[in-house]
Write a structure and sequence with these properties.
The protein has 233 residues and is an alpha+beta fold. The protein is built from 8 helices and 10 strands. The protein folds into 2 domains: 16-184, Adenine-n6-DNA-methyltransferase TaqI, Chain A, domain 2 (Alpha-Beta Complex), CATH 3.90.220.20; 185-233. Helix 5 (144-151) packs across helix 8 (187-232).
Length: 233
């Protein structure tokens, strides 16, 4: 009896993923829960990753005008800290890394190593990014503060855990980044949520600063008490 044999590419049935982690039941359930959410690729007008100059340091300068940002420049408040930044030469800024010259309000997203770190670029200084970071620019009627908060949420972190590849240094490619889904309400609701979260973050920041000040005051009081005791002896 003649047997029929059918051939197909593995990529056509696996989506180019060989790791079993990607197909766990919990992720399939997550996929169903996110089915009505919006992929980042549909609301962005530009997504690109940076790169790192390879000329043994000759592309860098000690101090300069053109900032070269890395994940270490991200802080816990979804902001970019320019302190201790590296600098690249003008020719690198204008040629090699021209495509990822940053603009005010760009969202930066970690795609290698510390995947999922998020920050909003709110500086007027000229800056570019390395290969571990992607820059995202959004279409109209998108609140970048809202997007940044969502990208930093468990909703996205669970998707990242599924998407990141099990290699020595976890990473996401641009297609995977574009596939991340987020809830996207009307712009008025985005604004309302962003304003509410921003107020909470500002209050938390004030409390942290007050706590540090209280600690410093306490240390000074203790020092005074110790000095007084020594003088009394």
């Amino acid at each position: 009896m003649k047997k029929n044999i059918f051939l197909t590419k593995w990529s056509e049935i696996s989506g180019n993923r060989w790791d079993s982690e990607y197909y766990k039941k919990s992720y399939k359930e997550l996929e169903k829960a996110l089915k009505d959410f919006t992929p980042l690729g549909k609301i962005t007008k530009f997504i690109a990753s940076g790169s790192t100059p390879k000329s043994k340091g000759n592309d860098y300068v000690k101090d300069g005008e053109y900032y070269f940002l890395r994940l270490v420049n991200f802080n816990d408040n979804l902001e970019i800290n320019l302190k201790d930044s590296l600098y690249v030469k003008e020719e690198i800024y204008n040629n090699t890394l021209k495509r990822v010259q940053l603009r005010y309000n760009d969202i930066l997203f970690g795609i290698a190593g510390s995947i999922g770190k998020v920050a909003i670029y709110r500086h007027n200084q000229k800056a570019v990014i390395n290969q571990a970071i992607a820059v995202l620019r959004f279409k109209e009627n998108i609140n970048v503060d809202y997007i940044a908060f969502i990208l930093n949420s468990d909703i996205v972190k669970k998707q990242i855990k599924r998407l990141q590849r099990p290699v020595a240094q976890p990473n996401l490619n641009m297609d995977e980044l574009k596939s991340i889904k987020i809830p996207l309400p009307d712009i008025n609701i985005q604004n309302e949520i962003a304003n509410h979260i921003q107020k909470i973050r500002e209050e938390a920041k004030k409390l942290k600063e007050q706590a540090l000040q209280n600690l410093e005051n306490t240390k000074k009081e203790i020092e005074k008490m110790l000095l007084k005791e020594e003088n009394d002896i």
